[in-house]
Amino acid sequence: xxxxxxxxxxxxxxxxxxxxxxxxxxxxxxxxxxxxxxxxxxxxxxxxxxxxxxxxxxxxxxxxxxxxxxxxxxxxxxxxxxxxxxxxxxxxxxxxxxxxxxxxxxxxxxxxxxxxxxxxxxxxxxxxxxxxxxxxxxxxxxxxxxxxxxxxxxxxxxxxxxxxxxxxxxxxxxxxxxxxxxxxxxxxxxxxxxxxxxxxxxxxxxxxxxxxxxxxxxxxxxxxxxxxxxxxxxxxxxxxxxxxxxxxxxxxxxxxxxxxxxxxxxxxxxxxxxxxxxxxxxxxxxxxxxxxxxxxxxxxxxxxx
Length: 305
Hints:
Layout: H1 2-59, E1 76-82, H2 92-109, E2 113-119, H3 121-129, E3 136-138, H4 147-162, E4 172-180, E5 186-194, H5 198-206, H6 221-304
Parallel strand pairs: 1-2, 1-4, 2-3
Antiparallel strand pairs: 4-5
C-alpha cells in the first residue's frame, strides 16, 4: 500500500509541474495574440491603398503585363504554404498542410505541375519525411514575422512567375495560410495571388465592380506595374504571415488551455486514488493494531491461568 501511495504522489507532482508549464504557455500565447491582431490591423491601410493603386494602373491602361495576364494554357503553378516553426498548437499546421494537399490535387487535376514553397519547420518536416521536392523554404520567424521576411519570400516567387515555363518558371502563384477569424475560429484557406484577377480586385475595392477611369502614366503603365505589383505580392504575403501568426497563437492558447484543464482533471483523479490508497493503508494498520492487541490480550489471559 505504501509503495502505491508513493507512486500516486509522484504522478501528482509530475502532472502539477506540467500544468504550471501549460498554464504559462497559455498566458504567453494569449498576450501574443493581441500583438499579432494589432499588426494585422496596422497592415491593412497600406494593403488597401496598394490594391487600389494596382487596380487603377491595371484597369486604366491597355498594357499587357506578365503579372496580370492569364496564360493561354497554364502548365505550372507555385504554391506557398505557411505553417509554424513550433508545435503544441493543436491541428494548426496539419490543417494548413491538408489544405495545401487539396489545392495540389486540384491543380494536378487541371494538368498543372506544382512547385512547392514552404514557410515553417512543420511544413518542411512533413515534406522532408515524405521525400517530396521543395523549391525553397524559410524558417525561424513564423510566430513574429516582419515585412522583410515577406519581401525575402516574395523575391523568388516573383522571379519564377516572370520566367517562361521552359526556363523553370510558373504561370500561377497560389498561397495557403490560416486565416484568423476570431479567438476561437481559424480557417485554413488558399487563394491565387498571381496573375492578378482584375475583376475581383476592382469589385472588392469599389464594392460594386465599377470601372475605374483611364489615367496617363509616367514613364509608362508597364513601368508602374513593374514597381507596384512586387509590392502588392509582398503585402499579400505579409498580411498572410500576420494572420497565420495570430492563428498560431490562438491555436496554441486553445491547445494549452485544454492541456491545463486535462491536467487539472487528472490531478483530481489521482488525488482520489491516492486518498483511497491512504485510507486503505490506515485501515490495514488499524486492523493490524487491533489484531495485535487482541493477540496480546489472549496471551496475557493464558499466562494468568
